[in-house]
Amino acid sequence: MLSPNEKIAFIILVIICGALAFQGFSRIFKTVKSGANADRSDNLIGRFASALMDVLLQKPIAKARPIVSMFHSFIFFGFSFYLLVNVNDILEAYVDGWTTIGSENIVANLFNVFADIFSVFVLVGMVFFLYRRFVQKPKVMDFNANVKLHPGVSAGGLKRDSLIVGIFILIHVGSRWLGTAMHLAENGHTDSWLPTASIISGLFSNWSHASLETGIHVTWWLAMGLIVMFLPYFPRSKHIHLMVAPVNLALGRKTARGAMDGVTNTASPGSRTLSDLPWPQVLDPWACIMCTRCHEVCPAHESGTPLSPSALEINKRYFINEQGNSVFNGAGETALLDYAISDDAVWSCTTCYACVEVCPVGNEPMMDILEMRRNQVFDANMPDELADVLRSLDEQGNSFNESARRRSKWSKKLDFKLKDATKEPVKYLWYVGDFASFNQSCQETTRKVAEVLTAAGVDFGIMGKKEKSAGNDVRRAGEEGLFEVLAEQNIETIEKCEFEEIFTTDPHTFNTLKNEYPDKGGNYPVKHYSTLLLELIQSGDIELKKKLNIKATYHDPCYLGRYNGIYDDPRDVMQLCGIELVEMPRNKEKSFCCGAGGGQIWLPDHDDMTQRPSENRIEEAVSVGVNNFTVACPKDMTMYADAAKTSGNEDNMAVKDIIDFVLEAMDFPKKVEELEPILEEVVQESHETKPEEPTV
Question: What residues does 526 pair with on adjacent strands?
Fold first, then answer.
């Protein structure tokens, strides 16, 4: 029990600190409200029920760093239960005779045992994190030297915040734990429902009654007074994620991952300032726990460029905290490029979605970047190389600045003629795509797809010169208007074709046809060719005559895997061909991007790049002991064929498409042109070994 003066003092402290905290929470609400419109009001009960269940099970945080996630769970479950503990302690202080210690009530005893065990869990978890942050200092917590950071961050703000929060938790929970032990010492006995407190109660067995009473009061004030005094700091600290993260998860994007939001303001598309961002993205910095999981998986940050998705969210938070209410009185018009992220970093993103997928609190830093790109392109502020490619796409309909008449030139080397789907009906409309059509390193693969499908008796055709880029990377490079034009033109052409399904070898094309064209009026059944190949093999239309019996690894393309969840079909095709699949450590949803997406394939390497993402990936494949690196994307074929050379692995790592395995397993007879060199060699050998004519 508190004395009357203590009770009054605690109430006054709650009022003062509560009022100060209210100002901080009010600023958060006003800042978020200032963001651009976004509708997340559908199925609110279901959204929050699902989010709370995920949080209670710690599912979002368990996606990576298993050991760290385990210790975080210690703190999460313990601190969550401490809400009840704090209520109980206030009742104990204000209600005469209220106590759970020594009670014969089973509910009180269960409360005691959970409070006791969770106290130790929290203390152990917090010591682990402080050790990790300040002693172990893992490299993944560091930013590249060229990353733009708020001055407060550069001055050590993150470590200071972590230390403040860590010490607060240790004192808050530790004091309560010690106070319970003192209660047991005062009662002169241990309690089996308080096992750990009973153990340390022996430390206080020789204390006088007055000393124990003083100790109990001091520990109560350290535990409860400290948490009240922490309230004004709470809205400014990383600890706010306790409240905001579940809300952020509940109000997260529910549309398809591969579908970008449309432009809401055509007069000024994209985002220049904080308030231009959709309001859920304005909420993100308060959900951020500053764990840097996002830049740990970011191919741009890994390769040495100035992009850190983590720094983007942290900088937003520090700027808002620094400006206070000025955010609504002029400071909110400060450009994001002035404090949140550098111009170079905006153009370093590969749009691989890894940062969004791995974030345990539902943040979307990649979406901020895409919104900023839209604004930059609208204002004609973009790399010159990108401007040239966009001009080519506008004038020629492809990123290679090639005439549309040359789009199907790759098919001229085939022994058969492809159907023109714009002139005759087909079962499958093959949307070939730019790289599969124009890039020389991809054309042989494209021809092999045609050969396999023809041999299987598949009825398919192409649109030839009437096909244009589907626009997936155009949109993600920020040119929304051009994407709209390309989509409209392609849909107009597709509508004139008679077919049952579309298939494509390009995951980027697959993504935009499947997820974005429906909103433009182009709602078609779309397959990736790996799915089509698997169906044809399983139906017997493709007959695999021999097992290849080789080892290979497989790289998951971002726009096939992380964006659209297709992981098994390419692997199943490989295994049916007799491939022993050896997985790289980063596979499926954890796959490491090749570095081509979001228009990066059109841009030169950043000056600070230490290693291309594709080279990093080839080295990962080498580490698992295989000599075959398998892809299912034309851009991947381009990136990795080059990376095998530049990384010095050209002789020990063959980059192959899944179609290579299918064609080989079909065991076609050798073509005449393939046999000619062999025949010439045989003839030459026969001449060399022919016996001399006898002399007369």
Answer: 502
